């Protein structure tokens, strides 16, 4: 505790010192961190630079929830063990989460972003989520260099959040929840941070992106049992986004993420910030494969509660389509996601090869309708239905979630939300903790972002 306290004091002093010199102004080619960033996807491509000298923008987020959820499963008393008997949960506040953002304008058309999780469900200590360089102009090499091309082109390089699909632009990223009209993210939450590069071309509403990464969440140079340090992942996105009239905006994108061999893929498990639904359907004990023993369950070591991982740890190909329509204050956002893959141990043909027959498939569908109203659309009402169906070793797993939400922007930097959630599980075996599992109830969330 003393060490954590000392670190907190040092960090606070550093923040105060940095803040004295920070210029908290908007930057070029940058998504605002407040209400203005709602329904912004890729960073806008600004053609006029305001760069004068190096600027450091210090930002951050803080979020807190009050949870009033109930859960239950259908495991019969005769089949109950420590690993499928649910923990008892009640109504109270969750751990407050916090982010620190540093955005630095380094040169004309060149900036850096770095996000640090100061407090998160999985980690009690601060740690870096990721960061990148964004290049929108090459004048720092030579005045006017490739200016006609760079007018529409953006390059991002770093250990960063991959741009797979559009849902990750609306999801909660630890404490950054002001973009999300709901409290929880999707059931199958596609999010990962990997070392790579992405190249964008945006022109007249058309969007194209191609990228590569090393397919690894945890970076190291150690070889695995196959003598490899990792593999590679390929990403691509194509779409159209246009404000067709003053009242009507239309966007439609298609994305793909695919790997060859990778030493552990984390597309659906990379988020160490954790689920917003704390301890739901958590057993009294869980099996820790690292220590090969039973461990007491806590909110930290079961931080993915309420989410689903299809188990594609070795190879994966995922495709996501996202329509977005906004007419006046009414908007619709949809997700159609089709993925297939396998773990390293799956070999249905027992031939030691990776065949297509070894792959399993998963389908996720989600649709949300939001109505925003008020002079500056400061109020909203929303509903979302989300379903996942996945081939598993025991058969097909089906998970369904329904959410109702209401929100109020007290200022452009402060949002209060109320959500009702109901999630149900089907298809799990009778001795599994998720057998006939369900949770439901209310969540209240307060979010600050600047």
General description of the model:
There is one protein chain. With 450 residues, the protein is mostly beta strands. It has one domain: Porin (Beta Barrel), CATH 2.40.160.10. 5% of the residues lie in helices and 46% in strands. The chain contains two helices and 19 strands. The chain has helices spanning 2-21, 147-150, and strands at 55-72, 92-93, 97-107, 110-119, 127-135, 153-161, 193-203, 206-213, 233-243, 248-259, 285-288, 293-296, 315-327, 330-342, 360-373, 379-392, 395-411, 414-426, 438-449. Mean pLDDT is 90; it is low at 1-23.
Write a brief caption for the model.
The chain is mainly beta.
Order of helices and strands: HEEEEEHEEEEEEEEEEEEEE
Top-tier CATH class = Mainly Beta
If helices are DSSP runs of H or I spanning 4 or more residues, what is the number of helices? 2
User: Can you tell me the residue ranges where pLDDT is under 50 for at least 5 consecutive residues?
Assistant: 1-23
Number of domains: 1
CATH architecture: Beta Barrel
Distance between the termini: 29 Å
Fold-level CATH name:
Porin
User: What structural class is derived from the secondary structure elements?
Assistant: mainly beta
Biggest sheet details? 16 strands, antiparallel, barrel
Radius of gyration, Cα only, in angstroms?
22 Å
Indicate the overall shape: globular
Beta-strand percentage range: over 45%
Binned, the helix content reads under 10%
Number of strands: 19
> Taking all residues together, what is the mean pLDDT?
90
Region (Disordered): 340-360
Organism: Hanstruepera neustonica
Signal peptide: 1-22
Protein name: Porin
């Amino acid at each position: 505790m003393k060490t954590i306290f000392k670190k907190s004091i040092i960090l606070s002093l550093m923040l105060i010192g940095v803040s004295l010199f920070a210029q908290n102004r908007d930057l070029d080619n940058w998504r605002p961190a407040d209400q203005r960033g709602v329904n912004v996807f890729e960073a806008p491509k600004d053609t006029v630079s305001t760069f004068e000298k190096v600027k450091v923008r210090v930002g951050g987020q803080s979020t807190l929830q009050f949870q009033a959820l109930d859960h239950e499963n259908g495991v019969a008393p005769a089949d109950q063990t420590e690993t499928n008997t649910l923990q008892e949960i009640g109504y109270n506040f969750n751990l407050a989460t916090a982010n620190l953002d540093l955005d630095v304008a380094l040169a004309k058309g060149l900036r850096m972003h770095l996000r640090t999780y100061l407090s998160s469900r999985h980690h009690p200590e601060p740690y870096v989520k990721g960061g990148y360089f964004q290049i929108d102009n090459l004048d720092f090499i030579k005045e006017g260099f490739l200016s006609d091309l760079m007018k529409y082109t953006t390059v991002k390089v770093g250990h960063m959040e991959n741009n797979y699909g559009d849902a990750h632009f609306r999801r909660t990223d630890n404490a950054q929840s002001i973009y999300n009209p709901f409290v929880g993210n999707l059931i199958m939450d596609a999010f990962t941070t990997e070392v790579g590069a992405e190249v964008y071309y945006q022109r007249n509403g058309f969007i194209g992106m191609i990228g590569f990464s090393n397919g690894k969440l945890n970076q190291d140079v150690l070889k695995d049992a196959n003598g490899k340090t990792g593999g590679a992942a390929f990403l691509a996105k194509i779409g159209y986004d246009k404000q067709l009239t003053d009242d009507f905006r239309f966007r439609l994108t298609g994305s793909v993420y695919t790997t060859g061999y990778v030493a552990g893929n984390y597309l659906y498990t990379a988020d160490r910030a954790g689920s917003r639904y704390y301890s739901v359907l958590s057993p009294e004990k869980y099996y820790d494969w690292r220590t090969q023993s039973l461990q007491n369950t806590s909110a930290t070591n079961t931080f993915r509660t309420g989410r689903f991982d299809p188990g594609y740890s070795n190879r994966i190909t995922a495709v996501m389509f996202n329509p977005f329509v906004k007419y006046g204050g009414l908007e619709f956002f949809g997700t159609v996601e089709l993925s297939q893959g396998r773990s390293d141990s799956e070999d249905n043909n027992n031939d030691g090869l990776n065949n297509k027959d070894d792959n399993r498939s998963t389908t996720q569908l989600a649709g949300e309708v939001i109505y925003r109203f008020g002079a500056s659309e400061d109020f909203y009402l929303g509903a979302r239905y989300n379903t996942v169906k996945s081939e598993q070793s025991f058969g097909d797993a089906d998970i369904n979630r329904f959410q109702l939400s209401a929100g109020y922007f007290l200022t452009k930097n402060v949002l209060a939300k109320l959500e009702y959630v109901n999630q149900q599980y089907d298809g799990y075996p009778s001795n599994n903790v998720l057998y006939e599992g369900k949770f439901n109830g209310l969540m209240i969330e307060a979010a600050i972002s600047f």
